[in-house]
Amino acid sequence: MAKKVAVLAVNPVNGFGLFQYLEGFFENGISYKTFAVADNKEIKANSGITLFVDDVIANLKGHEDEYDALVFGCGDAIPQYGENAGKSYNQDMLAVIKTFADKGKLLIGHCAAGMMFDSVEAINGKKIAVHPLAKPAIKNGVATDEKFEIDGNIYTAQTENTIWMMMPEVLKALK
Hints:
The chain is α/β, with parallel strands linked by helices. Helices cover 31% and strands 26% of the residues. The protein has a seven-stranded mixed β-sheet with strand order 5-2-1-6-7-11-10, with helices on both faces. A two-stranded antiparallel ribbon has the order 3-4. A two-stranded parallel sheet has the order 8-9. Helix 1 (15-27) runs parallel beside helix 5.
């Protein structure tokens, strides 16, 4: 039986990255639900397009056992996080990522996802692919120059332009 995936979408989210995950899941019969890392379900893509996702991150907190994997759909995650770190939705996001990590569930993401995974000590000693500008920020894992990395339960792509290289392995793990 295919696994169920919780997909986090920051606001604004990189639509190209997000839709690669969602299309792959849809086309392969993998159940997923999208959660806005925001106060409401209306978010924007980096391109300015308005998106309405299934739910908000606050409603995923405490329901992590209903999912087998977590996808971090990046966008302007780090600047937005830096400006809004104290907001409840960002605190909920970190708590949810930490819970998934503590339970050994699959953590999947691109660009700055590795930074978020690192911030909750989910990648201790593991190799990750992150945006080249994020490499110096990684403290607990090993940031590589690879286009994507799979290390145990951590699946990371360097940018939205390399997700496609990682997706066959992600789909295999979720089927």
